[in-house]
Amino acid sequence: MHSTRDLQAETLPHIQSLLRPGGQLLLLELTHQSKWIDLIFGITQGWWRFSDEHLRPHHPIISASTWQSILLKSGFAQAEFVSPDQKIGSALFQQSIIIAQNTKKASNISENWLIFTDSHPEKDHLPRSLQEQLSKNYGSCTIIYQGQNSTQLSQFEYGLNAHQPEQLKAWFGENPSPHNIIYLLNADHQEQPESILLNRCHYLLNLLQAIQKTPNSPKLFLVTQGGQPFELKQPTFITQSPLWALGRVISLENPELWGGMIDLDPSADITQNIADLLLGLTHAIGEDHLLFPQWPSPSGASSPIGISTEKTIDYSSGSDLFNHRRYWSSRFGPSWSFG
Fold first, then answer.
1. CA-CA distance, 239 to 195, in Å (whole number)?
2. Model pTM?
3. Which region holds residue 330: left if phi is over 0, alpha if psi is between -120 and 50, else beta?
């Protein structure tokens, strides 16, 4: 990692985002500056790539004690190192083993939630089951169903016509602004795929325009069911997959509103999907493109896969480590994830 541009501002935050809460980092790094190593690697461009001159003013290599210090300052709970002692000497042994543990606290999702869905309240029980879990364990939760007119179905359930942006704007103007919004798509739509897709895109854009004018910027989570084709026996739902493209645009153009995208397995039962969704909402800060396929794992639970959009290998952006993590997670389940 010494060949990356900025250890504290870029590299360590990316590495920490790859670790689960309480996960451990095992690092083998050069920690002794040596002229003969400079003669070998000093002619390469990457050796002098560093720009964090406050930390590394003249050389890319820092001591093990400095590594320990910046790991703790970057939010790691613990950091220790093992370096060559005086008897062995550092002339031949230039490296140290550095061990750090990520903080055990996961992201806090105990806030005001809003579920916006095109599901029918009597046919699809996932929105209400999710509302029950969020209200019970993480704060208040309201559901807005897609309907023809603006109506209040119960204390925490409403019906709005998302084709009419003024209804959405009026609702957000009359009710407390939510901290988080889940745009939850129904998995049962099989007829008239073109019109359903257009409606869903229209609903999402109208919702985005409405929340852009709220006083506090809520985080928007896009949740599909079978929107990604990873190891699914049935084809991906064409009424959901294009919304991932819209989600990627939103993440780039409106990062202050972006929470993440989560794809659930349509063949899983409600209990499993609720557990997966809550896990995804908790870890969306580190990985905002999550897929929950249905496969056996050592723990018997679903194992999420992060879907990287990076095409280049760059340790400073974490994409190379990201791809290794995705591979081992997909092959052997969560116990093989980093940390």
1. 9
2. 0.59
3. alpha
Buried b (16+ CB within 10 A) or exposed e, 24-61: ebebebbbbeeeeeeeeeeeeeebeebebeeebeeebb
Q: Give the DSSP H or E segment for 273.
A: helix 270-283
The CA distance from 309 to 287, in Å, is 11
Query: 54: which residues sit within 8 A by CB, 6+ positions away?
Result: none
Token code pair at residue 217: 């910027």
Question: What's the rounded Cα separation, in Å, for the pair 6 and 324?
Answer: 22
Q: What is the full DSSP assignment across 281-293?
A: HHHTTT-SEEE--
Question: For the segment 174-221, what is each residue's pLDDT rounded down to a tens digit?
Answer: 988 899 999 998 876 556 667 788 888 888 999 999 998 887 889 999
Determine the Cα–Cα distance for residues 339 and 224; give it in Å rounded to an integer: 28
Residues in a beta bridge with 24: 101
Residue 244 token pair? 């991932």
* pLDDT greater than 60 at residue 327: no
**Per-residue pLDDT band at 19 (split at 50, 70, 90):** confident
H-type alpha helices, 139-269: 165-174, 193-211, 241-253
Q: To 5 degrees, how large is the angle CA 288–CA 294–CA 300?
A: 100
